[in-house]
Amino acid sequence: MLPANRLWLSEGGVGLLRSLRHYCQKTPRKLTICEAISHLQVGTKIKVQGWVRSVRPQKENLFLHVNDGSSLQSLQVVASSELNHRLLTFGSAVEISGSLVTSPSRKQEVELQADQIDVVGECNPVDFPFKIKKKHGLEYIRQFPHLRCRTNAFSSLLRIRSEATAAIQQYFKEKGFIQVHTPVLTSNDCEGAGELFQVEPAGQEKNQDEEGHQHFFSVPAYLTVSGQLHLEVMAGAFPGVYTFGPTFRAENSQSRRHLAEFYMVEAEISFTQSLEDLMKVMEDLFRSTTEHLLDQCPEDVALYHKHVSPGYRDNVDLMMKKSFNVITYTEAINILNSSSKKFAFKTDWGCDLQTEHEKYLVKHCGDFPLFVTDYPYALKPFYARDNQDQPLHTAAAVDLLVPGVGEMCGGSLREDRLDLLKTRLAQAGLDEAYGWYLDLRRFGSVPHGGFGMGFERYLQCVLGVDNIKDVIPFPRYSRSCLL
After folding, report:
1. What is the CATH topology of the domain spanning 29-121?
2. Three-state DSSP class for 293?
3. What does the domain layout of the chain look like in residue ranges?
4. Where is the Aminoacyl-transfer RNA synthetases class-II family profile domain (predicted)?
5. d(CA 148, CA 326)
6. What confidence tens digit (pLDDT) does each residue in 228-240 have?
7. Contact partners, residue 134, CB within 8 Å, separation at least 6
8. How many CA atoms lie within 13 A of 420 on its CB side?
9. CATH no. of 150-200+218-470
C-alpha cells in the first residue's frame, strides 16, 4: 500500500488530480453585450450569446460584431481564422467564450478575444430579408413583424418602450397612486363610440337572455375600450389609482394613426374639482417619463432623432423646458376660423376637433404641446362634469395635443352630482345599465377626475415617428394579418 503522501502517483490519484484541476478552472462568466462593453470586466474570461451583425474574415484573423438586444452598440469579437465556419454568417445565433480585453481601435473601448465560437442557429443571409450594411426604412421592416426586432431601429424602439413603461410605473408609485388591473372583458362602452369587439365563445353552449339572444355571460361582453369606469369604482376608496394595459377599438381604418389594439395609461384622482390638477399630472407624467428615456436610452433615442426624424431632438428639448400652452375650445375654434387654411372638416362651434384641426392648433401655438379645455357638453360622454355655463354649454373636459400626433391625452372632471348624472343617464337611455354607477355617487362620493394617455402616441411624440404601427411590437389594425 502506498504512503498517503504518495497517493498522487497512483492511477486513481492522477485521475483525482485531473478532476481537481478541471474543477478549479474558472468558468467563463456569462455577460450581456451591454455589460461587456461597459468594460468593467476587462481581463476576465467571459461568455456572450447573441446574433452576428457583421462578419469580416481575414487571412489570420476573424472579426465579428455580435449583438444580443441589450444595447444598440455591438461587441467586436476577434478570433483566429481557424475558428471561422461556413455557418458563421450575418444573422446567425452564436455563443462565444474568450477574454475581454482593451481594444486598440478608437471605435470601441473593449473587444472579445475569442477562444471558442459555437453557431447555435444558422441563418442564410441570401434569404434573410435584412441585408448587412444596408439601412432599411421603417416602412420596409414593417412588412416583417416576426423579424423586425432584429433591426437596429426596432430593437431600439423595444428598449425605449420597456424603459418608458418602467418610468410610467415609477412616476405613479412615487406619487402614491395604486395600480389597478382593470378587466379586459367588460359590458360597458365608456367612450360611447360603439367601436367595440364583441366576445363570444367558439363552439360552446351559450346562455340565452330574455330576448332570445345567446351569450356566454348574462349580458353581451366586449373587449375594453377603456378602464376608466372601473378606475372610478376604485377611486371611491383611494385618492389616486391608475391602470396601464391593452385597449381595443373596432375602427375600420388602416391609417397611420389607428390601431385595433393599443396600450393606454389611465389615472383617476379623488378630491379634485380642478382641471388644472389633471393637467399638472399629465404634464408631469410626460416630463418625468421623457427625462427618464433621455437619461437611460440616449443612444436609442438619438438613433430616431438622427435617422427617422432629423432635428427633432430640438423639439423634445423645448417640450422639457417650457410649460405647456392652454386654450379653451372656444378659443381654438376662433383660431381655426381666423385661418386662411382650408380644412376638410367643419370648424363651427359644437363640431368635434379633427386631426387636421388639432395639428394646425399645435403648429399655430409654436409647434408645442397644447391643452384644449372646456369642450361643448354635447360632445362629451355622460360622465363628464357639466360646467353649467350659458349660453355656451360646456363640460369640464381637456385634451392634450402634441406635435405630429394631435390628441395624446384626454380627460375630464367626472359628474359627481347625483341629480345631474341621473338626468344625463336617463336622457341617454342608460339609467338601468348604469345603476351601479349611480351608487358610486350615493355612497361616500367625492369630486374626482381622470384622464387617459395613448402610450403609442406618446412614443410617436417623443421619437418623431409618423406611423403608429412603428411603435408597437405587433400592430393590429383593420384587415391586418395576425401572427
Report:
1. OB fold (Dihydrolipoamide Acetyltransferase, E2P) (2.40.50)
2. helix
3. 29-121, 150-200+218-470
4. 158-473
5. 39
6. 999 999 999 999 9
7. none
8. 13
9. 3.30.930.10
